Amino acid sequence: MRTRRAVACLLVAAAALAACATQADLDGDDRTAAERRADEAAAKRMLLTIDDLPAGFRAGPVDEGDDAGVTGFDADVARCLHVSPDRLDSDSPKAASPTFSTADDSTEITAEVTFTPSTRSAAGTMDVYQSDAAPRCYEQAFRRELAKQPARPGVELGDPSLDRLDVPDVGDETVAFRVSVRLSGGGLHIPLYFDVLLVRVGRIGITMTFATQREPFDPGEAAELARVVADRAPAS
Known about the structure:
This protein is an alpha+beta fold. The chain has helices at residues 3-6, 8-19, 33-46, 67-81, 119-130, 134-148, 219-230, and strands spanning 57-62, 94-96, 98-102, 107-115, 155-157, 161-164, 173-185, 188-201, 204-213.
């Protein structure tokens, strides 16, 4: 069974993590249309490519996500953190990589780069992720997303658990989470892991996702791939 189908709901949640940004009211977003286009172009140049990955990976389509699902996820997290949903804003210019997967689909990797209006606004986003309540709130939101998924005969997803993940520092700040869930069906019980690395480089936010079956992705290797993207950030 493809990992992607098993963790489709988790990818919705990851999109929310990738898009989540403290509202630009901290400094105001006064970028012109031309400046926003330039930021989007710069984000595309930073993205992970197939040449950055070890042998055995292939490039699939770009995951556009589910805006409706992302909105609901953001609202759940905002309520849990006791902040207004308006604090979560996904309007900044961004670019997403293709989904890179192994031939057996047991590992999938994606990257997204977002250019916020300022270093202050990007740092504010990381403050949300660093808060003590963040793991609990995101875990609750993941559970709600799982509960919304259509039932598949003979297939059962266990309760997800979310924990902070220790990874080497990348860029100016790094936060990482791991979601673990067990997939059961046909007499098989397969552990699934979904790691999200959030990196800030100045005003730029980088979100790396690693979905795997049976064994989690190596945190050191994940950080190295995130560093490849971070090193492509334009000079301030």
